Amino acid sequence: MPEPSPALATALTPEAEPPSETAPTSEAEPPSKAAPTSEAEPPSEAAPRSEAAPTSGAALASEAASTSETAPTPEAASTSEVASTSETASTSETASTRETASTSEAARPPVPPPSELAGGERGSGEPGGEAERIGMIRWERDADGIVVLTLDDPEQPANTTNAAFRRSLGAVVARLERERASLTGVVVTSAKPTFATGADLRELAELADPRAAFELATAGRVLLRRLETLGRPVAAALGGAALGGGLEIALACHHRVALDAPGTQLGLPEATLGLMPSGGGVVRVVRLLGVLNALVNVLLQGQRYSAARARALGLVDGLVATRDELVPAAKAWIRANPAPAARWDVPGYQIPGGGPASPALATALASLPAGLRRQAAGAAQVAGPAILAAAVEGAQLDVDTAGVVESRYFAELVTSQASKNLVQAFFVDMGRVVAEGAASADGPGGRARFEAPKAFVDRLLGVYLAEAAAMVGEGVPAPSVEQAGVQAGFRSSPLRLCDELTLATVRATATATATVGAVGGVAATVAEAEAEAEAEAVAEAPAGEGAVATGQDHGALAVLDRMAGEFGRSGRAAGAGFYEYADGRRAGLWKGLREHFGKDADGDGGGDGAANPVGNPIANPVGNPAANPVGNPVGKPAGIAFEELKERLLFVVALRAVDCFDEGVVGSVSAVNVASLTGAGFPAWTGGALRYVNGYPGGLAGFVARAGALATRHGARFTPPASLVERAERDEPYA
What segments bear the compositional bias annotation Low complexity (predicted)? Predict the structure, then answer.
């Protein structure tokens, strides 16, 4: 495998520098306290959306740096982890599970008798009797009246919050309520090396109707709320990873004790797949940690924490050194706390740090969307606005009504095209790529491989950066060029990336097309595939046998030549490029760009902040982030449609991806999609370059028509290849 490119790895990673304080382009109104209180209504266009709540980008960066661990990106998760990241529910189980604001018996989902559940082993469940299996949960009651519920799915190596789990939990909770008077408390633990790791994304991928998604989220959330309000102490004994829905189970318990060992991870990583918690996770973590702390350190970036870090943050209450100590420690806490309630159910409880309306927090929240856009790249940009809205609105409501708000945002998000694209890319497509690599292990050399992404990534990055340089040469203000890349959803803004790679490298890459044969490389997991793609990205111009120079039909090369030759501005390493640098840090876009390549009537964009000047993303929490930019772009010149700037960047890259697929540079549609996301930083909301082509308004025919219009206006590089035109005529999407 080629050596990683430090320059590209750095360039494609969002920096920890705080975003410009002037980034937001619109003020948000505080969320209404008149949030919906009825759970009978499905999500609709009128579903609650918070316009308030944006935090200081500086606060986001500084708090994340000081108290959070680096969150694995969706590209860096293994296939099994990705498959169990966020909670789901089956549409067949919830016709009668509408919740009211209370948790009354009438609102509870019907529960089948234990005998109808899978694995219905029966024992006494009483002191001295055998443990009883209720579906995938073992029930065992000790002499003190403490029931130990052991999650143990006999069909899977890890516990997941799937349909079988929900049936089992429903039966268990109903029995706990019936026997409450004779119970001392409840311990929830696991027989697996992990506690629970969330749900199978295949279930989520099937959700298309927001009404059904809302009902399913409601059903699971109500079950956990019933456990939480049982009236007996409930403790979680976490002997391994508790992620996504697994952590939501633990958060519904009154006390959490975790095994202090390397395998123990806790977090809500749904945002890394363009999703959000659905079992009350947003509601509870906000009340546990405070609004800002929960958003920055748990919800928006999907961080995963070791047991010790989770305790320091406040997600768990105690640690033990060995697995054998877990349940005894949980039981000891129950005996010492015979009648607890969740802290947020105690009258007078105040959320740490205050509510969103408190002056200090309101000031911090005012610029959080800009910080989110800066710090949380890729998939988190899809989910972040919905998570932010649910957290801020919910913090102003009672627990049960806040849960309704969470379910509604989840339903809207999980059924959005952007979210489905991400699930498709990082679960389905990545699974296929891994399977293709594994199959190739049977061939010569016996090694699985991820097909030669270097030539592919080179070509996609080359045209992306060249198009941005061409825009500068046309007189488009540099801040608008940068904003076009950011608002389209690319992982790095183009002029910043040019500087990171050096302009000479960009020029060489933009003028070369490498042909490449099979290149060995192992990518057996999502983490390896992502590392492979980034490691093999552009570090130097393609050269050697098979390199073919191809001229560009626009002015990018002239711009790059003048920048490096005439002005001596070759990139960050030289201390001068499209940006100015002071002590190695970007200090703003070079003012000479306006002088030499066109006048910016609106100024220079305010320095470095112009690289990521975004509006308030909460205005479009779950839609296509590129389709609905908020506010007018900084430095937007008259006569130039900002939407067209974004489309030029998207189209030029997507068209080169089509070329690479046709030429066999990357051998499958799934591999093209995955490599375009993980290697070339193509916008995550699209699900990949070929999925973007498929999903363009009007389908392939719409994409071809728009490409033709761009070719007429901007040059032959936008001319759709014959293969694409023929596919459009046959209405045959890439699959």
Answer: 1-107
Which tens digits make up the pLDDT trace of 482-521? 999 998 999 899 999 999 998 988 888 777 633 332 222 3
92-104: per-residue pLDDT in tens? 333 333 333 333 3
| Structure tokens, 475 | 């007189």
Asked if residue 407 and residue 437 are part of one domain, the reply reads: no
The neighbour count for residue 16, using CB atoms within 10 Å, is 12
The pLDDT of residue 305 is 98
Average pLDDT, the chain: 75
User: Of 686, 326, 680, 333, which is closest to residue 534 (Cα–Cα)?
Assistant: 680
- Per-residue pLDDT at 547: 26
Same domain for 142 and 246: yes
CB crowding 176-189: b at 16 or more within 10 Å, else e? bbeeeeebbbbbbb
In a domain, 421, yes or no: no
Q: Are 631 and 487 in contact (CB under 8 A)?
A: no
d(CA 247, CA 197): 8
Same domain, residue pair 249 and 287: yes
- Assess whether 549 and 606 both reside in one domain: yes
**Residues that are catalytic:** 248, 270
Domain range spanning residue 177? 31-415
Domain contains 140: yes
Measured in whole angstroms, the distance separating CA 594 from the mean position of its chain's CA atoms is 36
* Euclidean distance between CA atoms 656 and 661, whole angstroms: 9
Last residue of a domain, one of 354, 388, 415: 415
Alpha helices by DSSP H, 163-244: 163-178, 201-205, 210-228
The torsion angle over the Cα atoms of residues 426, 428, 429 and 435, rounded to 10 degrees, is 110
Residue 526: band (very low, low, confident or very high) from pLDDT cuts 50, 70, 90: very low
| 382 and 336 fall within a common domain | yes
The number of domains in the chain is: 2
Rounded Cα distance, 340 and 417, in Å:
43
677-735 pLDDT, tens digit per residue, is: 989 999 989 999 999 999 999 999 999 999 999 999 999 999 999 999 999 999 999 99
The residue assigned the tokens 């050194």 is 321
DSSP-derived letter for residue 511 is: T
Q: How far apart (Å, rounded) are the C-alpha atoms in residues 643 and 302?
A: 30
**Is residue 133 in some structural domain?**
yes
SS3 (DSSP) at 563: helix
Q: Give yes or no: residues 530 and 674 share one domain.
A: yes
Q: How far is CA 440 from CA 316, 436, 534, in A?
A: 44, 6, 21
Say yes or no: 463 and 404 in one domain.
no
Dihedral of the alpha carbons of 21, 25, 27, 31, in degrees to the nearest 10: -100
Judge contact between 222 and 170, C-beta under 8 A.
Answer: no
- The helix, strand and coil proportions of the chain, stated in percent and rounded to the nearest 5, come to 50, 10, 45
Q: What is the CATH number for 583?
A: 1.10.1040.50
Whether residues 246 and 390 share a domain: the answer is yes
Q: Given 415, 441, 459, which residue is the final one in a domain?
A: 415
Rounded CA gap, 558 and 449, in Å? 39
